[in-house]
Amino acid sequence: MEAFLASIITDILLMNVTCGTNEQFYRCGACDSVCGVQISCASVCQPFGGCGCIQDHVRDSAGTCIPKTECPPVNRNDTCSEFEIFSKGGKCERTCERPSKRCYRVGVKEACRCLPGYVRDKAEKCVPISSCFKAIFK
C-alpha cells in the first residue's frame, strides 16, 4: 500500500514537469551522453525521475540536447583530460573561484573545455562544481 501511495504522490508532483528542447521526461531519470564522451550509467531508478535527451541526441558542451550528428569532430591532435570535451567556445571558463561567471562565444576557438556541471580548479583540472564548495567549507 505504501509503494502504491508513493507512486500516486510522485505522479501528482511530476504532472507539471517541463523539459527543454529535444528533451523528454524519464520516470527513472536520465543519464545523457555528451558529444565525444560515452558516459556509463547506473541502473538505479532515481526517486523523482528527470529530463533527458530524446533518442539519438546527446548533450553538447553547453548542456543542450543536440542530434549526435551535430557533435563537433574531435581533433585527434588535442587530447582532452578527464571531464573535458573538445569543442568551440569563448576564451573564458567557469572556475571554482568564479562558478557563475558568464561566458560568451566571443573569439570562438576549438579547445578542451569542461563538461556541463564541471569547472576548473586551481590545478586547471575539470572538477564537479560541488567539489569546489566542499573545499571551501572544510
Strand content: 15-25%
In the CATH hierarchy, the architecture of the largest domain is: Ribbon
Number of domains: 2
Termini separation: 43 Å
| Average of per-residue pLDDT values | 75
* Helical content band: 10-25%
CATH T-level fold name of the largest domain: Laminin
The side-by-side strand order for the widest beta sheet comes to: 1-2
User: How large, in whole angstroms, is the Cα Rg?
Assistant: 18 Å
Q: Would you identify the CATH H-level superfamily of the largest domain?
A: Laminin
Largest sheet features: 2 strands, antiparallel
Instruction: Give the number of DSSP strands.
Output: 8
The gross shape turns out to be globular
CATH class of the largest domain equals Mainly Beta
Uncertain residue segments: none
H/E topology pattern:
HEEEEEEEEH
Description:
- InterPro entries: Ser_inhib-like_sf, SerProtInhib-TIL_Domain, TIL_dom.
- It holds the Pfam family TIL.
- Residues 1-20 form the signal peptide.
- Keywords: Disulfide bond, Protease inhibitor, Serine protease inhibitor, Signal.
- It comes from Steinernema hermaphroditum.
- The protein has 138 residues and is an alpha+beta fold.
- The protein folds into 2 domains: 17-71, Laminin (Ribbon), CATH 2.10.25.10; 72-138, Laminin.
- Helix content is 14%, strand content 23%.
- It contains 2 helices and 8 strands, in the order αββββββββα.
- It has helices at 2-13, 129-136, and strands spanning 23-26, 50-53, 57-59, 65-67, 84-89, 109-114, 118-120, 126-128.
- The chain has a two-stranded antiparallel ribbon. The chain has a two-stranded antiparallel sheet with strand order 3-4.
- A hairpin with a 5-residue loop joins strand 7 and strand 8 (126-128).
- The longest helix is centred in the first third of the chain and has 12 residues, at 2-13.
- The termini are far apart.
